[in-house]
Amino acid sequence: MANKNNNIVVVFDFDKTIIDVDSDNWVVDELGFTELFDQLLPTMPWNSLMDRMMKELHDHGKTIDEIKQVLRRIPIHPRVIPAIKSAHALGCELRIVSDANTFFIETIVEHLGIKKYFSEINTNPGLVDEQGRLRISPYHDFNKSSHGCPRCPPNMCKVRTIYDFNYMH
User: Fold this and answer.
1) pLDDT 10s digits, 42-70
2) pTM surpassing 0.90?
3) Which class is 9-168 in CATH?
4) Among residues 147, 148, 137, which one has the least CA distance to residue 45?
5) CA-only gyration radius of the chain, Å
6) 119-145: per-residue pLDDT in tens?
7) Which of 15, 38, 51, 129 is labelled catalytic?
């Protein structure tokens, strides 16, 4: 993907960087579940909360297509897509490292027509199960062990993801 004469890798966060809002909050708010989200927020880790919210959406009849429709309306700054295309055209390798989830990110970047510009997307798994419910899991299983970085949330160490595992930790 990148020009062989250029070893520049540009790493993008997703929420509040490629898009103008937090994708998790956007979906919850747009589908009318903010009150329940706010009640549950102090009681569980973020990824567990989002998995629970996807269960609640599913249990209340919200479909994967409705979630996709909401994601396709997400606000984005008008200069983001041209910046991504310009960096790619200059031979930079582009990656996303985010603690959103694969389902949200892939839905949005496909809709925006920019998925092909990214060589890699590292994020929390977000998969649709057999019942048609979106399941969200942590990138690092914080229930088994901590990734050990005091600067990052327990579900994903972005430093560890970007650099070699032995480089920073």
Assistant:
1) 999 888 999 999 999 999 999 999 999 99
2) no
3) alpha beta
4) 137
5) 17
6) 999 899 999 999 999 999 886 555 555
7) 15
| Residues tagged in the binding site annotation for Mg(2+) | 13, 15
Q: Is 13 an active-site residue? A: yes
CA–CA–CA angle 64, 119, 3 (5° rounding): 155
Q: Give the pLDDT confidence score for residue 2 in this predicted structure.
A: 43
Residue 64: Cβ within 10 Å count? 16
Domain ranges of the chain: 9-168
User: Which tokens sit at 49?
Assistant: 């909360």
Structure tokens at 60: 């209340």
The contacts of residue 151 (CB under 8 Å, 6+ apart) are: 159
Confidence at residue 99, expressed as pLDDT on a 0 to 100 scale: 87
Q: Identify the active-site residue in 13, 20, 22, 141.
A: 13
